[in-house]
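Structure tokens please, single chain.
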Amino acid sequence: MDAEESLGLKELTEGLRRSYIDMVDEFYAVGEGYPYNNVPLAQSDFAAFVRELEDEKAGIGLPPGIVPQTTYLLVRHRERVLGEFRFRPTVPPPYLSNSGHVGYNVRPSERCKGYATKGLALIVERARALGLEGLMLPVEGENPGSVRVIEKNGGVLVRRDADPDTGEVTSLYWIAV
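Here you go.
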């Protein structure tokens, strides 16, 4: 990551449509898919997709037990979407262990450049401004890259849980803010 880069978190707007869709397309091109948001809606009616994210933030139309979240995009130079950070300020148990306060992904071509670390640091700043004590972040399976990102932001391992059906391990990290 170049020290001169202009990085910031922005909520999705129509002006970022092309860059957002380009990021999603990149995930599909490398065979990862994009299960984080309603991609078919984003591709067919972007304005409706933006409204859907605004409703998620406001807690409108959410299924029972699903908490409001704000979707931020990590944007370079105000136009290139590098990744997506989903921030849930309030997460009651048992969802704290499953979803945590933050979920994020960085476009494949921009990984290993410090963007996830910087984006998470910006989310930590927002959490601090809201007066949160800390953030819980789950890491599913083996994901040393995410562990490094979380630890660089002060995260410490709290515990590991194994799914009784699949045996898949989720590691829970806490970042005090």
